Amino acid sequence: MEKWQDPTESQKMEHIRQTFLNHEMPVDSFSDSIMKRIGDEGMEKRASRKNGNKFLKKSLVAASAAAVLGAGIIGSGFVSPVMAETLKQIPVVGSIFKGIDDKGLNAAEEKGLSTAPNQSVTHDGVTLKVTDAYYDGSRLAFAIEREGIDNDKMMAEMIIEPIEFDPSLTEQHGKVTMNQSEKGLLGSAEVKLPNGKKLESQMSSFGDVEGKKNAILYDYRNLNNIEALGDEFELSISVPVAQIAEPFVIKVPVRKVTEGIIKLDLNQTKEAEEFSYTITKLELTPATSRLQLSEEGKAPTVKEKDGYTTSEMFYEIVDELGNAFSSGGSFNLPAIVYPLVDKDFIPFAQTPKTITVKPFTYSIDENHKALRDEEGKQVKHYYPELEQTIQVEQK
């Protein structure tokens, strides 16, 4: 089975970076150390990380600086008859999504929910072709194959320079450069909507697909500004390639998956002592589960082992059969309250009848690393008094 490495650690770094940039929070006591760690730790060469599920062999994860929940746009994409015909194509044998260690994309490919655009562009003897695409309103993923370069690697080394945190600035952007030493390696893609605006997502990743030479996967989750475009439109994907001056701009027709989608607008609140959280939205798709909520008050803490403190709040979702998935994409901060939480999870294989949200925290040391038990698993502390159950409407 082809695997791409779990990008959780990179997601943690970028998640908290954007937390600082987009929200006002009482983080002065640890902002310097966190931002230093974010800047000092590059986002390249993550192949050696082993974190349970393995996804990207190499990955770079970034959140859009403009990612603001609820952002809207005006206008929609026009789909020509030719494009509509292209969208009818189903995945072919050899699909990059097929067999990858990603339950969501695997399920989408097996159910025929992904498409095979097969749109390509050639520059300087190198051809890039978008072979697979999946879009469900919350998640966008596409795979690219490369021709004309004999190299086992696909992803260029991406280096982000350290950032000096300045609380007076509303936005800070680290300078990211792509190593140009090896021709034909790919950098981070820029995805534009039909109205010319950039795609906004809370989390994105890309990286080589192990076991499939000359293949790379781009993945965007918790999308913000794409809903108004409707079910069919065209994206413009621009990919920089090392030692080739002109970027590869590929026009890709996209069809929104509409079957198996459940969206619930909620207003469920649970409170215990000085902390409360309100679930505002639950979205279930074949490729992801998405939970949105807001937190208020003072984050709960528990008596910890010497040298450890209580982390920020995390969330686990559990169906009526006991299938459980935990949220990731954070930085194990000390207890802190977020006015806005937008988490994605591994999708459920079958539509649940109920989903119970279970808040929990980790025990973390001064370097924000979680305490582990004898089996090497992170120690979790659950808060039963804060659990909430969501009734899922069956279609």
Automatic annotation (TrEMBL):
Residue ranges of domain DUF4179 in the record: 57-144
Domain DUF5643: 263-375
Keywords: Membrane, Transmembrane, Transmembrane helix
Family annotation (InterPro entries): DUF4179, DUF5643
Transmembrane stretches, start-end: 59-79
Pfam families cross-referenced by the UniProt entry: DUF4179, DUF5643
Sections of the chain in a coiled coil: none
Name of the protein this chain belongs to: Tat pathway signal protein
Organism: Paenibacillus odorifer
